[in-house]
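TICKET: design request
STATUS: open
ATTACHED STRUCTURE:
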């Protein structure tokens, strides 16, 4: 079941804690993962409407993780998060399976709008699936 839950994946502990606290202040349920392995374990047992992930992580990076997730999950909205996202073309993100991207350091207002937009998109997908 896809609910208004968010999974945030970043290898930087301070970044995870900060984003976790901000999202909770917005009133959403959030879970964090430190790497792709932990994220995949979480995703085996739970579904998330929104997944936000850092692109630059040791081991399996965000690009490869997004591709893995998309093999089994086409409904979640997935956003890339990076201080280097400008180096990538928007079409490349779409080809991989991302629905959008955010720049580090993420501004609170931008994050709030991105989350709201993701849940609106998830609701539309859910409605289309029932038609």
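STATUS: resolved
RESOLUTION: sequence designed for all positions
ATTACHED SEQUENCE:
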């Amino acid at each position: 079941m896809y609910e208004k839950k968010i999974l945030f994946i970043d290898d930087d502990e301070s970044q995870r804690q900060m984003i976790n606290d901000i999202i909770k202040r917005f009133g959403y349920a959030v879970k964090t993962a430190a790497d792709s392995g932990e994220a995949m374990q979480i995703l085996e047992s739970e579904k998330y409407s929104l997944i936000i992930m850092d692109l630059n992580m040791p081991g399996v990076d965000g690009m490869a993780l997004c591709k893995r997730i998309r093999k089994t999950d086409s409904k979640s909205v997935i956003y890339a998060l990076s201080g280097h996202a400008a180096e990538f073309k928007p079409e490349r993100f779409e080809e991989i399976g991302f629905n959008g991207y955010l720049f580090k350091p993420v501004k609170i207002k931008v994050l709030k709008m991105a989350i709201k937009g993701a849940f609106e998109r998830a609701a539309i997908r859910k409605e289309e699936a029932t038609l």
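CLOSING REMARK: Residues 5-130 form a domain with the Rossmann fold fold (CATH 3.40.50.2300). The chain has one domain: 5-130.
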